[in-house]
Design goal:
Blueprint: H1 13-25, E1 32-35, H2 42-51, E2 60-64, H3 70-78, E3 79-80, E4 92-93, H4 95-98, E5 103-107, H5 114-126, E6 128-129, E7 138-139, E8 143-148, H6 152-157, H7 163-169, E9 172-175, H8 186-201, E10 207-208, H9 210-218, H10 224-238, E11 243-244, H11 250-262, H12 281-299, H13 304-310, H14 315-325
Parallel strand pairs: 1-8, 1-9, 2-5, 5-8, 10-11
Antiparallel strand pairs: 3-4, 6-7
Helix pairs in contact: 5-7, 8-10, 12-13, 13-14
Length: 328
């Protein structure tokens, strides 16, 4: 039975643009670099590129570069010859060999040591490598897709990542959007996860209560889609009614409240000291008013009507205050 194709769910503009670009680059064998925060689906994008390629029936070989120690990485990527080191009792083919005619996915490529980066560079430039302890060159036809949540340009400037390797990997650049950039997809994603985990748990849910969806859509999701997925799996596990209720997400509500409290602006007013003469109260209140206006706009993502409500003002009064303080 053939496995289902990987799918990046979403109808938001940034996701539709991403999906369109994936189909454009799938036919090429050029190296691809995928950048994005943890949990944004970088491996899913890599699999979609492979599955839409003419060689989709060939191997897709993933490797997490951050999960393999430096002294084992060379042997994992390139293999080794019998007797090349203690414990090498037989020849072993490496991941480059296994991915021949297909795709090698180097996840967390930013974790590679500088020594290993040099060896990887040669394999990428010439599609040639040698096994550890070997004397013969091995030729492979492999498309390499790399991914990282690191800022590789910054790593290059700091001498932590080779510039020549960066440009060798970065032939085609793809950036996976954070969940904050695609909030309109949250309900669709949540419903998809609910369907999957319900089937797995042998439960039958009608859906989400409206208040529960609102909590999901208002959460900041620092862990992105992976965090949302874990959240829905937990809800399916603990909920015993036929709908996912608000009570399943009380931890999210508490987290948001804690973050808002942590990021509150501190307004320090000078203690009244008339020994130095009069105090310009109007100026002090003017500055405090401006801080509150800016904070309300930030909290409401620049939505004036919502910001006005946060301050208990009518929209007209709010806009007049913005004009008064020169806030655009």
């Amino acid at each position: 039975m053939k496995n289902e194709k990987s799918t990046f769910f979403g109808n938001s503009p940034c996701v539709l643009e991403l999906l369109s670009f994936i189909h454009k680059v799938a036919n090429s064998k050029a190296n691809v670099l995928i950048l994005g925060e943890s949990g944004t689906g970088k491996e899913l994008v890599a699999r979609m590129i492979h599955e839409n390629a003419p060689f989709a029936d060939q191997p897709f070989i993933p490797v997490n570069c951050g999960a393999i120690s430096e002294n084992l990485m060379e042997a994992e990527l390139f293999g080794y010859e019998k007797g090349s080191f203690t414990g090498a009792l037989n020849n072993k083919i490496g991941l480059f060999d296994m991915a021949n005619h297909g795709t090698l996915f180097l996840d967390e490529v930013g974790e590679l040591s500088l020594t290993m980066q040099v060896k990887l560079l040669r394999a990428l430039q010439e599609r040639i490598f040698r096994r550890v302890g070997g004397i013969s060159d091995i030729h492979v036809d492999v498309r390499v897709i790399a991914a990282t949540n690191r800022d590789l340009e910054k790593e290059v400037k700091n001498g932590m990542f080779r510039e020549d390797l960066y440009y060798r990997l970065n032939v085609i650049l793809i950036k996976t959007p954070s969940l904050r950039e695609r909030k309109s997809d949250i309900k669709l994603l949540a419903e998809n996860f609910l369907k999957r985990f319900s089937k797995k748990a042998g439960k039958n849910f009608l859906g989400f209560e409206q208040e529960a969806i609102k909590v999901l859509e208002n959460h900041s999701w620092p862990g992105n889609v992976r965090e949302l997925e874990n959240c829905i799996e937990r809800a399916v596990t603990v909920e015993n009614t036929n709908s996912i209720t608000l009570s399943c997400f009380l931890n999210l509500i508490e987290q948001e409240a804690s973050e808002k409290k942590t990021h509150l602006e501190v307004i320090k007013l000078p203690a009244p000291n008339f020994s130095r003469g009069k105090i310009d109260l109007e100026k002090i209140l003017h500055e405090a008013e401006k801080i509150y206006l800016i904070a309300a706009l930030k909290q409401s993502s620049q939505a004036h009507k919502e910001a006005a409500k946060l301050l208990g003002l009518g929209l007209r009064s709010f806009n007049q205050l913005l004009k008064k303080h020169g806030i655009h």
